[in-house]
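Support request, please re-run this one:
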Amino acid sequence: MTDALRQKLINAGRILVDEGQGDYIWGHITARLPDNPNRLLMKPGCIGIEEMTGDNIITVDIEGDKTAGDWPRHNEVYIHSEIMRTRADINCVVHTHPEHAIAFSSLGKPLSAMSNDGTMFSAGVPVFSETTDLITDQPRGKAVAKALGTGNVVILRNHGIVTAGRTVEEAVYLAIKLEKACRIQLLAESAGGPKLFVKEEELVAKRSRTTRGDQPDNAFSYLVRRWHLRCGCEVPKQYQATLENFNRSGYKAE
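Re-run finished. Output below.
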């Protein structure tokens, strides 16, 4: 099971970079070990998030200390450990520095329901502004976890984003969608600001569709396939475009 989780982290890192969320050697992702909830697999320092391998992924504990692995631990481990400590329902945390989300955070504006992606977050995204510096100790990690609250996304002003999911797939999906929502709204802002929005009477229904439970799994599967096809690599069996590999819970049976 641990080997499969490591492989999923490897795929997640490739997806995030493929979606424009790589920042050289910065940014990181963790996944909780299912048989030991106080241990987390983590992308190590010194390498890009797409360069994870089964051998260089490290293990950290809920205090943020490295417990296994040869590679160094990220200084911002406390984002992950404190969210995992606070939220037993969360099994994966992503922290990246996507350009559009950072730029959008500097405007001091909320995300609006002006796109499919914006609709996902238009109920409100918390912004952590206690510091714009790195989160390098437990108190700051606890503060980020507090800002996240019972939600799944938080913007670190002038710094980046944090997403938290029940699965790796969910956390990655939220990171991609949040960045896209920020990018689309920035485009509208640069053209004078959005004037037309999702109709109020359609908002709840549309939001429920964009956050449908099958979406993260199917999107992750597609993005794994896309990465492998682009590099001319064989697509792993569990991600191949065959009907049995898809979560069809959001689709009508007929």
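The chain has one domain: 2-241. The beta strands are 28-33, 36-42, 58-61, 66-68, 92-96, 127-128, 153-156, 160-165.
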